[in-house]
Design a protein that fits this description.
The structure is a single chain. By secondary structure, this protein is an alpha+beta fold. It folds into three domains: 278 residues, no CATH class; 121 residues; 126 residues, Coagulation Factor XIII, Chain A, domain 1 (Distorted Sandwich). It contains 21 helices and 13 strands. The strands form three sheets. The protein has a five-stranded mixed β-sheet. A four-stranded antiparallel β-sheet has the order 6-7-8-11, with no helix packed on it. Strand 12 and strand 13 form a beta hairpin. The longest helix has 28 residues. The relative contact order is 0.08. The model has no long low-confidence stretch (mean pLDDT 91).
């Protein structure tokens, strides 16, 4: 074991330099995905805009926005500059994990814990993400260090609660309250502190311990009170997640996989490597408990690492299962620190085995690092920067841009979209239950087109189906315009770019839909069919597509088992192809339809090679999965199959 204090400092610096080198080598070249553009956008906005966003619009804490805006004034708001802020927060978090590990288990424990922490893909995600997770890691790790010094130095009662105590207490308050203003999951992280101190106080209920606990709790409550008042009367949970139920097993595996693989898609047939990492963490903790025969106090210290791992994890499992189904692997970030401490502090117990310790340590670090070599696609394979750059280069005077959906305004603003644009829906609202309906789509699109005398409309979409499940943007534009081929526009990942040349005004669609009247109502009082049309009646080649628009209206009764089968027939009535789906989409049930609003259900049918050239017909067969009514056949329109 290295005993010299100078040598300890040099090794600590070397570990941090290795972490910095890794971050520099693996620096991402890709642009920001959607969530990152939110933080990047507000780094360029006013203080009042940040305040309004955090208190009235979205459910995010303000500290990361505030610090990035200050950082932006000094270093700029380029992708590189904004990522650098996260990287330095990640380095600070690594230093704090090292410092905490040294306090719990010694110098070797600190070095190993920092390396395990920095080699994980979860850490790498936070280090590059233009979001608050790296800042949260740094604040949580350093608040844990200050809490340790505060508790170990004063809880025993051997030192008076003097000025030095007040300084330590103020430092902890500053870091811990800052964590609460960084991310809502900071409450779960600080709950680990409370559990650790509460456990020790329960074991030895000395008056000094109770007093320190009261001071800590009072400072946190006073520090967070202004935010409680700022959000008074607002449901902070509104619109932030989908309805549903998530089991503890599914949630646990999601958090574990994120720590191991970061924000990447992991194929279902992948070997259970994430569980290997979990086994490594458990083994590290077991080694410490098995080989460390020192005083019980050392085991009490090790409990801090256990609390930091277990309490946030259990809190997350309970939250997503019983409170709100908002499952995101990155929300397990407090557990990453605990897992690194359990592994590093645990394996440091092998320090006494001078010959065998190095192979074991090297093997563990290799196992943690190996997922970095896996060729996995990111969950959000977004190339927003390239998409907006392509549009800016290809656009012509008079072009306009539609964002499907309106939340993309942060990306359009940060990446300097050169065209006049609107969002559909246009509300700058992070609400997954906010849907686009026909009247809003027509009004906003018509305003954009007529105000700019536009003949060409560009569309950028990223998960646009969430707020536009009817696909009204594409449906309206393909009704009044022709889709244009875009050479080189297919490399934007999960971001799509399209262009339409208009031959009519959006008002034509409003007039046509306004003239529709009920043709069929699903018995007894279900959805009402208003009519439909085949868009491409010109000769369609074999293998080509037939676009079909059908329009509906909500009935008095919701019929979840109802289905629509769009089918192709020749003049003799011979059936050739079909496509079955719920009205609109499975994610947009009739209970979500706005009463009185026309609802679009769009179909794409492929013309099979076996279909004879000449006239053809599209019909709808309306039926119910539960057989509550007899199938109903409705003609929609005709087209021609090319020779």
């Amino acid at each position: 074991m290295i005993a010299s204090s100078r040598a300890v400092r040099w090794v600590s610096v070397l570990v941090l330099l290795l972490i910095i080198a890794r971050l520099a080598i693996e620096w991402p070249q890709r642009g920001l995905w959607y969530d990152e553009t939110v933080n990047a956008y507000f780094a360029e906005q006013s203080w009042s805009a940040i305040w309004k966003w955090c208190t009235c619009i979205d459910n995010q804490m303000p500290l990361d926005f505030v610090l990035r805006r200050l950082w932006g004034h000094a270093a700029g708001t380029s992708e590189f500059a904004l990522r650098t802020f996260s990287v330095w927060c990640a380095v600070l978090a690594s230093a704090a994990v090292m410092a905490l590990g040294r306090r719990i288990g010694g110098n070797t424990a600190g070095w190993l814990a920092a390396l395990v922490f920095a080699l994980s893909q979860g850490f790498l995600y936070a280090a590059y993400e233009v979001r608050p997770y790296a800042l949260a890691l740094a604040l949580f790790a350093w608040s844990s260090v200050f809490l340790w010094e505060l508790w170990e130095g004063y809880a025993a009662g051997t030192r008076p609660l003097d000025r030095q105590y007040v300084l330590w207490l103020a430092a902890y308050w500053l870091l811990a309250v800052g964590l609460l203003y960084t991310h809502y999951s900071g409450f779960l992280a600080l709950a680990a502190h409370g559990a650790y101190l509460g456990w020790q106080t329960w074991q030895q209920p000395a008056r000094r311990r109770v007093t320190i606990l009261a001071h800590l709790a009072a400072g946190l409550m006073i520090g967070y009170l202004p935010w409680v008042l700022a959000l008074a009367g607002r449901d902070v949970r509104a619109g932030t997640a989908y309805a549903g139920h998530i089991g503890p097993g599914q949630a646990f595996e999601t958090y574990l996989r994120f720590f191991v693989y970061g924000q990447h898609l992991v194929p279902d047939d992948t070997l259970p490597y994430a569980w290997v990492i979990a086994l490594v963490v458990v083994a590290g903790a077991s080694v410490r408990l098995a080989f460390d025969r020192r005083a019980t106090a050392h085991h009490q210290r090790f409990l801090l690492a256990i609390w930091i791992t277990v309490v946030p994890l259990l809190g997350l499992l309970v939250f997503v299962n019983a409170v709100q189904a908002k499952l995101s692997g990155r929300h397990g970030w407090p557990v990453w620190i605990g897992a690194a401490l359990l592994t590093g502090v645990g394996l440091s117990a092998l320090d006494r085995f001078r010959l065998s310790r190095w192979p074991v340590w090297g093997a563990v670090l290799l196992v943690v690092w190996l997922p970095a070599r896996a060729s996995l696609q990111p969950v959000y394979n977004s190339y927003l920067r390239e998409a907006f750059d392509y549009i800016n280069r290809q656009a012509e005077p008079g072009d306009v841009l539609v964002l499907r959906d309106g939340t993309l305004f942060t990306a359009a603003s940060y990446y300097d979209a050169a065209l006049p644009w609107t969002g559909l829906p246009g509300k700058k609202l992070m609400d997954v239950n906010q849907f686009l309906f026909f009247d809003e789509a027509i009004t906003d699109l018509m305003t954009l087109v007529e105000r700019n005398h536009a003949r060409r409309v560009w569309v950028v979409a990223w998960q646009g189906h969430i707020m536009d499940p009817q696909n009204l943007v594409m449906g309206i534009l393909e009704s009044i315009g022709d889709s244009q081929p875009l050479p080189g526009a297919y490399g934007f990942g999960d971001v799509s770019v399209s262009l339409y040349v208009l031959h009519d005004s959006p008002g034509k669609v409003a007039e046509a839909v306004g003239e529709l009247h009920p043709l069929v109502q699903i018995p007894p009082d279900g959805p009402i069919f208003l009519g439909g049309e085949v868009l491409n009646a010109d000769p369609v080649p074999h293998g080509g597509i037939v676009l079909v628009h059908t329009w509906w209206q909500r009935g008095a009764v919701v019929m979840p088992g109802m289905r629509i089968s769009a089918r192709l027939y020749d003049p003799s009535g011979t059936f050739y192809a079909q496509h079955d789906q719920p009205p609109v989409a499975a994610t947009f049930g009739q209970e979500l339809w706005k009463p009185g609003s026309p609802i679009l259900s769009r179909f794409i049918l492929w013309v099979p090679e076996t279909m004879p050239p000449g006239p053809a017909e599209v019909k709808l067969v309306l039926y119910d999965m539960d057989g509550t009514f007899e199938p109903i056949t409705v003609p929609v329109g005709e087209f021609v199959v090319a020779d």
